[in-house]
Design goal:
Rossmann fold; BirA Bifunctional Protein, domain 2; RNA-binding; 577 residues; YbaK protein; single chain; nine-stranded mixed β-sheet; alpha+beta
RNA sequence: CGGGAUGUGGCUCAGUUUGGCUAGAGCGCAGCGUUCGGGACGCUGAGGCCGCGCGUUCAAAUCGCGCCAUCCCGACCA
């Protein structure tokens, strides 16, 4: 491949509307261009990278026994009505009508389509298990697309769906996909972690997310330093404390004029926030709920939603708080609270401080001291509902948990019967009895992997691509394409590499050396091979490892063998052999 | 959807507060010359409905109203 003939429009400056590093670099490196909000054109180099990721995913999916197919982007509304998601999925589903006024949508995911396909064709247990996947463009009309390819509206995704005759079989399919995902992300040369996850709107029994580790990631991961436990903070469990019954004097009121926040109250009373109870009011499917956590903790809305079995959970408005507690925001408490409000508490509150809790008095400018929740308040139930924090004990082994940031690039779900039941995907077992198929679904955001890889691997000069997903593994920089010996040597090296299976780009442009060096660093080809008159005069060509920046001289004669050695070292640096 | 901001050659931006003559700079692009191992320099040149519409005014990139687009924060979500 020759740079002169290639379309690689690199930019010195990033467009003003690019915010995150991967978006800036992808644009500057001439790999993508934005068409409109959340929708991008993949330029030749960007597409090359995308295809490399897709091919690794494809190889591992095939190896795991899944079969590739391709489903349509346009889907009929009927199927979505049948699964119940036409109403449930919301505005993220882009809907439209055809010329006959029939409803359609652009597929954000394909559970409905595969399930429809399979239920019509698969009739016998002999045809199961089955695992089908595709690599296809998805469209989700995100509320707020952002961060370039990280959260586009249109994006490339690999989605796989497994069908099994029973739950044990589904577990095996799940495990096979989990293993395949581990191999995929290892092969890509990325630092990643598989974590336990919440199942979200897709639903189902349990799931794991695959996180590419990067400080710029949107997700927080809690990982144990001692055992293998790792989970999304949304989901990470917190064990209950060993409850101790505190005996304290009777509750009494104290004036706290104008003290609304935990910090203000704690400061005013000169006590630790740990002695306070934070009472948060929520509107759960239209009903008022008070959720209690210790003053220094964060409520975990996902856990709360799950333990309430709520569909829709939003923080109460100031007006609702006033109506429910008869006090302005900042003075709510569980004692003497209106009976119409359900009161739930984080199980950490089972362990009270010696002097009891400090809680809001449901009256402006007042709090209560020496509160014993069991004695003085009405708690409907205790449950795990706060977010895990740095150095909390691990819920499995009691070790210490550390928090890191990650980008979700893959997600595996055990769906169970959710769609097969709703859409009647059944088969006959060996006794001629009708059984419902047990499903799983498994996604990888191919275009997001590209962005995540860059978020994880970049420096001030540009992208440092892991070799497996770089648009080209190597670039041969011909410093003086007009000098016959330089041009000839550069071309010879290029041809040799191409023949030996290295994906290589020859920079044969008539540009000054600086421009070529900058561009090579920017695009982030893992291996740079510099052919110049000076080096050739001394019988060497220079090679540079983009990741480390380390430069080495290899003999111009006998380059082939020396290169093979060097390449091994570069790949070893990425943890790839 | 709520809050904030921005919109001027392909890209980055100045000019808008206080309306005024032919709308500028750097990068990029084309031509010529000199250069040539980490984004060279000189000269010449092409390229603009100043987001769109309506209004105010002798006069609008600049003021007013409306719309559209994009970005950021939030709710939401993979």
């Amino acid at each position: 491949m020759r740079w002169k003939q290639a379309y690689i429009p690199t930019l010195k400056e990033a467009p003003a509307d690019a915010e995150v590093i991967s978006h800036k670099l992808l644009t500057r490196a001439g790999m993508i261009r934005k068409l409109t909000s959340g929708i991008y054109v993949y330029l030749p180099l960007g597409l090359k990278s995308l295809n490399k990721i897709a091919n690794i995913v494809r190889a591992e999916m095939n190896r795991a026994g899944a079969q590739e197919l391709l489903m349509p982007t346009v889907q009929p509304a009927d199927l979505w009505k049948e699964s119940g998601r036409w109403e449930f999925y919301g505005k993220e589903l882009l809907r439209f009508k055809d010329r006959n006024e029939r409803d359609y949508c652009l597929g954000p995911t394909h559970e409905e389509v595969v399930t429809d396909l399979i239920r019509g064709e698969v009739r016998s247990y002999r045809q199961l298990p089955l695992n089908l996947y595709q690599i296809q463009t998805k469209f989700r009309d995100e509320i707020r697309p952002r961060f370039g390819l990280m959260r586009g509206r249109e994006f490339l995704m690999k989605d796989a769906y497994s069908f099994d005759r029973d739950s044990e079989g589904a577990d095996k399919s799940y495990q096979a996909m989990y293993d395949a995902y581990m191999r995929i992300f290892r092969r890509l040369g990325l630092k990643f972690r598989a974590v336990e996850a919440d199942t979200g709107s897709i639903g189902g029994k349990f799931s794991h997310e695959f996180m590419v580790l990067a400080d710029t990631g949107e997700d927080l991961i809690a990982a144990c330093g001692q055992c293998a436990y790792a989970a999304n903070v949304e989901r990470a469990e917190v064990n209950p404390p060993s409850a101790k019954k505190a005996v304290c004097g009777p509750a009494r009121e104290i004036a706290t004029p104008g003290m609304h926040t935990i910090e203000e109250v704690a400061g005013f009373l000169n006590i630790s926030a740990k002695a306070l109870v934070k009472t948060l009011l929520f509107n759960a499917d239209g009903k008022p709920v008070a959720a209690l956590v210790r003053g220094d903790r964060q409520i975990n809305e996902i856990k709360l939603k799950n333990c309430l079995n709520a569909v829709d959970l939003v923080l109460a408005t100031p007006e609702e708080v006033q109506a429910w507690t008869h006090a302005p925001v900042g003075f709510a408490g569980p004692v003497g609270l209106w009976e119409g409000v359900r009161v739930v508490a984080d199980h950490e509150l089972l362990a009270a401080p010696a002097d009891g809790w400090v809680v809001g008095a449901n009256r402006a400018d007042a709090h209560l001291l020496n509160v014993d929740l069991e004695r003085d308040a009405r708690i409907d139930f205790y449950a795990d509902m706060r977010s895990i924090e740095e150095s909390d004990p691990c819920p499995r082994c009691g070790g210490t948990v550390a928090l890191t940031r990650g980008i979700e690039v893959g997600h595996v779900f055990k769906l169970g019967l959710k769609y097969s039941e709703a859409m009647h995907a059944v088969f006959l077992d060996e006794n001629g009895r009708e059984q419902t198929m047990v499903m799983g679904c498994y996604g990888i955001g191919i275009s997001r992997v590209l962005a995540a890889a860059i978020e994880q691997n970049n420096d001030k000069d540009g992208i440092c691509f892991p070799p497996p997903l770089a648009p080209c593994e190597a670039v041969v920089i011909s410093l003086d394409p007009n000098a016959e010996n330089v041009a000839a040597k550069a071309l010879a090296i290029h041809d040799f590499l191409e023949k030996s299976g290295v994906d290589v780009l020859l920079d044969d442009r008539e540009e000054r050396p600086g421009v070529k060096f900058k561009d090579a660093d920017l695009v982030g080809f893992p291996m740079q091979i510099v052919v110049g008159g000076k080096g050739l005069g001394r019988g060497v060509v220079e090679v540079k490892d983009r990741r480390t920046g380390e430069k080495t001289e290899l003999p111009a004669d006998g380059f082939e063998n020396a290169f093979a050695e060097w390449k091994k070292r570069v790949y070893a640096g990425w943890g790839i052999d």
